From TrEMBL:
PROSITE patterns linked: HOTDOG_ACOT
Record keywords, A-Z: Hydrolase
Protein name: Acyl-CoA thioesterase
Domain HotDog ACOT-type: 9-121
Record family assignment: Belongs to the acyl coenzyme A hydrolase family.
SUPFAM superfamilies given in the database record: Thioesterase/thiol ester dehydrase-isomerase (SSF54637)
Signal sequence extent: none
Organism of provenance: Nonlabens mediterrranea
This protein's record includes keyword Hydrolase: yes
Cross-referenced Pfam families: 4HBT
Lineage of source species: Bacteria, Pseudomonadati, Bacteroidota, Flavobacteriia, Flavobacteriales
Amino acid sequence: MTDIENRINDSETRIFKAVFPNTTNHYDTLFGGTALHMMDEASFICATRFSRKKVVTISTDQIDFKKPIPQGSIVELIARISRVGNTSCNVEVSMFMEDMYSYKREKVVTGNFTFVAIDDNKNPTPIY
């Protein structure tokens, strides 16, 4: 395995959260903006672990909400580097929903986030 493949594998990030009432909308499901916040956080951690540099989100792409996530669910976010450029990387994030009291689990949200590595002057810098 190459160095970059090892770094991609080592930077995979998994975060678990519970869907509490303060994160839901008036339908008692996870608010879309909160889901995006969680996904951006997981992808930021993944990009930082990969590059070990300062990174900023420059775009999101193709966020697909396949099912509502009811209050009382557990969600797992899995962020993984999907592409590496000179100064940027793409991170694919999958969100899985689990019922707290059964073993039912399904992928319910996916999205792609692009990050650019920056130097101390906030200029793009090589990402690895």
